Amino acid sequence: MNAARSTAVVTVTTRSHFHRARSLLASVQRHLPEADRFVVLADRDDDGRLGPQPFEIIPIESLPVPDVAGFVQRYRAQQLCVASKPSALAELFRRGYDRAIYLDADIVVYSTLRPMLEMLDAATILLTPHLTETQDGDVLESERRILQAGAYNAGFVGLSRSDASVKFLAWWQDKLLHECRIDVARGYVDDQRWLDLVPGMFDGVRIVRHPGWNFGRWNMDRRPVLIVDGEIRVSGEPLVFLHFSGLLSSAQSPGDRLNPDRENAVAPEIRVLIDAYAKELERQGAAVYSRLPFAFARSFAGLRAAVSYQAKSSARHLLHAVTTTAFRRRTRHWLREHTPR
Questions:
Q1: pLDDT tens column, 101-158
Q2: Of 79-88, 115-124, 248-257, 259-268, which range is least confident?
Q3: Neighbour count for residue 122 (Cβ, 10 Å)
Q4: Residues 6+ away with beta carbon under 8 Å from 186
């Protein structure tokens, strides 16, 4: 750790997405070299396929999570990653860091993060809203989707150690132990909707409205991009970090490329960035990592936990749990592995 105020950056991923974490942390190393870097592995690497890395890997089962054995069996892979965010940040504080920054694995940093550290010297919690400006024309549907998904994007959270940030993490962790789910009608969008309450409940919250922070598909139509002499600017400001969520065709295939659903919605400058990102993922080992299985999806106990989790609110959840394609696929997988031959 640094002798000055110490800073750590963490992400959470499974083995099949590990190439994205490597890409993210390589970009952090370029633009915030003084920060220590960590990956919380929401998976197991019993066969050592990940190999040595230029950052520390923290096994999810070593996090400060109550009943961590039940926790890792409760969620599917993606949900397990997002439900682990507050615990990952809490682990950094437990290790003594003064500033803890969480970034989703499908983010790339393009310019210095030092202004983030300056903000954390004055603020306790940094959040980035999905939208920071109004737009002329008929935008009701896009803004309604943001109302449903949550005002703030949970792909980034910056914290400075304080009583308020520690209380925030304990509160967020408690919510995500059992309530990390997608159920828009009931107000659930994984980890994200809880953040709507944070500015009203905790002191020292700063909402960062810089157009180059957490630039993503939810605000691209409102923020023009220019690339001049290699410099990327968003609404006239430097691009700080781009969140590629939903912009690639598949989260688990080695052939990452532009999502066909975004074909007519992405500016040429953004296509350049997506193409470069896809090539970087290949260089970071996408062909190898994307094929690695998820460890916690293999036990029948995990299937039972998933059904219990889905069913506890209502009979409708039970019906959904036992009829989803994901449940049927995981059940068939388990039966194939455990049927005598």
A1: 999 999 999 999 999 999 999 999 999 999 998 766 555 567 888 888 889 999 999 9
A2: 248-257
A3: 9
A4: 313
Q: What is the pTM of this model?
A: 0.85
Buried b (16+ CB within 10 A) or exposed e, 321-339: beeeeebeebeeebeeeee
Q: What is the pLDDT at residue 180? A: 84
Closest CA to 158 of 204, 193, 190, 220: 204
CA–CA gap between residue 8 and residue 113 (Å, rounded): 12
Q: Are strands 156-160 and 125-127 parallel, antiparallel or unpaired?
A: antiparallel
Confidence of residue 42 (pLDDT cuts 50, 70, 90): very high
Tokens describing residue 97? 């860091």
When pLDDT is averaged across residues 302-328 and rounded to a whole number, the result is 56
- How many angstroms separate the CA atoms of 176 and 188, rounded? 11
Going by the DSSP 8-state scheme, the letter that residue 153 receives in this structure is -
CA dist 85 → 3, 64, 231 (Å): 26, 11, 31
Query: Residue 132 and residue 192: Cα distance in Å, rounded?
Result: 17
Spatial CA neighbour of 81 closest among 72, 89, 90, 70? 72
Mean pLDDT computed over 222-229: 90
CB atoms under 10 Å from CB of 116, counted, come to 23
d(CA 263, CA 88): 35
Sort 230 into a burial class: Cβ within 10 Å, 0-12 / 13-18 / 19+: exposed
Q: What pLDDT is attached to residue 253?
A: 44
How far is Cα 324 from Cα 179, in angstroms, rounded to an integer? 19
Q: Look at the alpha carbons of 335, 302, 181, 100 in this order and tell me if their dihedral is positive or negative.
A: negative
